[in-house]
Amino acid sequence: MGAIATSRRTRSMAYDPVARALHWLTVLLIAAEYTVGLTMPGIHRNTRVGTLISIHLALGSGILLLIVLRIAWRSRHRPPPPPPLPRWQRYVAAGTHAALYAALVLTPLTGWATASAHGWPVRAFGLLPLPALVAHPPHVPPWFWEAHVFMVYWVLLTLIIVHIAAALYHRLIRRDSVLSRMLPGL
User: Fold this and answer.
1) Are 110 and 122 in contact (CB under 8 A)?
2) Residue 77: phi, psi to the nearest 5?
3) What CA–CA distance (Å, rounded) separates 30 from 167?
4) The CATH classification of domain 2-181, taken from the options 1.10.10, 3.10.450, 1.20.950, 2.60.40
5) How many other CB atoms are found less than 10 A from the CB of residue 39?
6) Is residue 180 within 8 Å of residue 10, measured between CB atoms?
7) Distance between CA 35 and CA 49 in Å, rounded?
C-alpha cells in the first residue's frame, strides 16, 4: 500500500503529460538546432540559403511556435506545487523559468528578423510559411545577426546550463522530487 500511495503522490506532484511532452520536445528541438547551427556555414551579406540554413530556419521557427504553444498550455494548466524549497530557490527558479521562456521567444525572433532582412523565406518546421518580420533591405543591419548570436550563445545557453545544473543539484545533492516532476513516464 505504501508504494501505491507514494506513486500516486509522485504523479500528483508531476507536471501533466502534455507539459512534459512539450518540455522534452523543446529539449530535442533545441539540441538539434544547436547542432545544425554549429555546423552550418557562416552568414554573410550575400550568403545563399542552403540545406543547413533551411533546416536551421525550420527548427528555429518551429521552436518559436512550440514555445507559444507551451505558454498557452501553461496559462491554462497550472504546474503542480513544488516541493518545499527555501524562498531564495523559489525566486531563482521562477526568475530562471521566466528568463528561459523569454529567451526561447526572443532568440528565434532575432533569427527570423535576420532571415527576413536577408530575404530568406522562413517556414515553421519547414512547412508553414511565415511572413517576413522586416523588409529586405539592400544592406542587412549587422546588429540583427549580433543580437541573434548574443541570444544564442550568451543568454539562452547560459540559462539552459543554469536550468540543467539546478535539476542535477536537486536530483544528486538535495535528492528531492524537483527533477522527477518533469521526467517522462510518471
Assistant:
1) no
2) -130, 100
3) 17
4) 1.20.950
5) 10
6) yes
7) 17
pLDDT in tens, 10-62: 556 899 999 999 999 999 999 999 999 999 988 777 778 899 999 999 999 99
Sign of CA dihedral 170, 102, 23, 76: positive
Instruction: Read off the C-alpha cell for 14.
Output: 508531476
Q: Is 58 helix (H, G, I), strand (E, B) or coil?
A: helix
Contacts of 181 (CB under 8 A, 6+ apart): 13, 14, 15, 80, 82
Whole-number Å distance between alpha carbons of 120 and 89: 43
Gap between the Cα atoms of 141 and 157, Å rounded: 24
pLDDT digits (tens, 9 = 90+) for 88-141: 999 999 999 999 999 999 999 999 998 998 889 999 888 989 999 988 876 667
Domain layout of the chain by residue ranges: 2-181
Nearby residues of 179 by Cβ (< 8 Å), 6 or more positions away: 167, 168, 170, 171
* Residue 78 CB coordination number (10 Å): 9
Q: How many residues comprise the chain? A: 186
pLDDT tens track for 53-100: 999 999 999 999 999 999 999 999 998 888 888 999 999 999 999 999
pTM to 2 decimal places: 0.88
